[in-house]
Design a protein that fits this description.
2 domains; about 140 residues; mainly alpha
């Protein structure tokens, strides 16, 4: 589709055509000015990137233990948040318990510390642990 130049209709006055064109130009200038303020705010405004490759805007389904092992705490927490958002969706009608950040950090640190676990998918580990979370929390 895209932008098209407004056409003058035979009965329209020249001033109406010019005012419509000026309104379109003013809208474009306003959008540019608003977007101009959306630049990099330095470290304070920067979002932490989760670990693993993106698929449809999320790392949840592709993040593996090999990604986890080398990550910083901030990136690990961003990964947990992404996985939690995918596993514990509100729109599914299924009430799945969410793991806390500390529970998920401990789970992934323990599971991914084994060399044979390099290709384990983090969301699978999370989903299985979340399923047993009520039982393990009651036992403690």
């Amino acid at each position: 589709m895209g932008w098209r130049k407004p056409r003058r209709t035979p009965g329209a006055s020249r001033s109406a055509f010019l005012s419509a064109r000026a309104a379109g130009s003013a809208s474009a200038v306003l959008v540019v000015l608003l977007l101009g303020g959306c630049g990099d705010d330095g470290e304070a405004g920067r979002e932490v990137k989760p670990l693993g490759p993106l698929l449809a805007g999320s790392v949840a389904h592709l993040a593996q233990c090999k990604d986890w092992v080398g990550g910083s705490r901030e990136r690990k927490l961003a990964t947990i948040e992404d996985i939690r958002a995918q596993v514990n969706r509100r729109d599914t009608g299924i009430d799945a318990p969410a793991l806390s950040d500390e529970e998920a950090l401990g789970l992934f640190d323990r599971a991914c510390s084994n060399s044979f676990a390099r290709s384990f998918r983090l969301y699978v580990l999370y989903a299985r642990a979340a399923g047993f979370a009520p039982l393990t929390r009651d036992a403690q």
